[in-house]
Amino acid sequence: MIRSPKSLALAFIVAFGTLASGWQTATEKVAAIPLTMPNKAGSLKFGVLGDFGTGEPEQYQMAATMVRVYQSFKLELMILVGDNLYGSERPQDFDLKFAIPYKPLLDGGVVFKASLGNHDAREQRTYPPFNMKGELYYSFKAPAQNVRFFALESTYMEPQQLVWFEKELKGSNEDWKIAFFHHPLYSSAGRHGSDLQLRNRLEPLLVAYNVSVAFTGHDHVYERIKPQKDITYFVTGSGGKLAPGDLDKSSPIMAKGLDTEQAFLIAEIIGDEMTFNAISRSGKVIDSGTITRRKAK
Amino acid sequence: MRHSQTLVVAALAAIVVAGCEKKTAREEAPVTAKTAPETVAQQSSIGTPGEGVVTEFNHRVEEYVALRKQLSGTLKKVPDKASPKETDAYQRALLALVAKARTDAKQGDVFQPEMQKFVRGLIRSVLAGPDGPKIRGSLMDENPMGVKIAVNDRYPDTIPMSTMPPDVLAALPKLPENLEYRFVGNRLILLDVEAHLVVDFVDNTFDV
User: Fold this and answer.
1) In sequence order, which residues have a C-beta less than 8 Å from that of residue B78 and are 6 or more positions away?
2) Which of A85, B45, B48, B174 is the most exposed place for a label (fewest CB within 10 A)?
3) What ipTM was reported for this prediction?
4) How far apart are CA A182 and CA B136, in angstroms?
């Protein structure tokens, strides 16, 4: 699986991170990442990662931090908001940019569920570890709690996808409806920012059918948006890429943001509440909170 | 003329309705895109094609799909849980077969001149509408500019896909599975996403 000196070196970063984490736990000489999660049995524990597949050291360092988090927070699901592989997508790139950095999580049984971004070729939908089963958009029931996820393909929002999405939402009886896709409907970043065309099409559906949370990427920052029409939006587009200084700090829609370091997010749903922690590459919790799900009025 | 236009719209509606008959199987098995219904309402009425133009375009698309199906049938089927190596080998083999079978293909074979004119007018009218600035924003987002692409080329592996604005997709004729419209600069290409092959394109669809 490891074919080049570079991938060997990068694999070392993850392996070292994993070993260091175990050593920390064993000796308690180094503080573990101080998560503020309930971490209860029976809850739905999942992660959100986006814009990560660079194959560069920063992605591997982020992956090592994710593995450290996993030592104490056994997430069972990782949703991917696209740009899963940057640049070439040769067979070996699937290893270098995905299978190697996240191997400890894959080996631990974490199920990845992908959506595609504008850097992703269509064949990713058949890559078994992405669990898309050949589809560009799909929905699935979470393995715990009463939650349904909707994965959309936002680079190609053709009419039949919108019709499908509305039908799925209408047919969903789950308490929690969570959408994830690549392009942010709301973003305070300068590089791309809010996709207003997409917002015109998707937001009415998210509002009408009680979607509580939407996870996106594309902008290479972390941002939590202040609730818009009662929906909480996250931009989690710094899983490997980073756009330093790209966030407009004076943005009126930003609740919390980070553009100085890579980040990913973990979340836990228990009943009507979802608790989340956003964690930086260096292992700091840079945002946290609890969201109460929307209910039919 | 009006009667002919009605027939074109009716033909488009028939194509759309024909795709509506798949039923959704809910629960436990993942619900997939294949179950998506379609409605005529989703087909935008922006722009009016000339007599038979869209019908001819659809016919040429169908011819391409038939050729591709015939050629792909000669290749070893890719297993459901194919490795990236197997998938890549299949796609490159498919591209080579299709490109060889279309050696004489040239720009304008699928997008005939009248269809090109229709597409240009349609995209320009979408961009001139009230949401034009928003649509242009979506369209230009990571749109690869200055990339040279020819018919039968493999879409460059390291170039991101342009984001297709929903209003533009709603206005263009619906394509069969594995064919997509994408922009490369202001060139609208018809892309076989499985073979990574540029089937045809229309130049200068909007002012940059």
Assistant:
1) A126, B86, B87, B90
2) B45
3) 0.86
4) 18
**Whether pTM exceeds 0.90:** no
Pick the residue from chain A with its C-alpha nearest to B179: A122
Q: Which of B23, B39, B138 to mutate to test the interface with A (most CBs of A within 10 A)?
A: B138
Tokens for A241, please give them: 């890429």
In a mutagenesis test of the B interface, which of A126, A169, A219 is the best target, namely the one with the most B β-carbons within 10 Å?
A126
Give pLDDT tens digits for A202-216: 999 999 999 999 999
Surface of A (74-103) touching B: CB under 8 A:
87-91, 93-94
A106 interfacial to chain B (CB closer than 8 Å): no
Q: What CA–CA distance (Å, rounded) separates A134 from B35? A: 13
The answer to whether A243 faces chain B, any CB pair under 8 Å, is no
What are φ and ψ of residue B126, in 5° steps? Answer: -65, -45
Signed CA dihedral, A153, A155, A156, A162: sign only: positive
Q: Tens digit of pLDDT for each residue in B113-140? A: 999 999 999 999 999 988 888 888 888 8
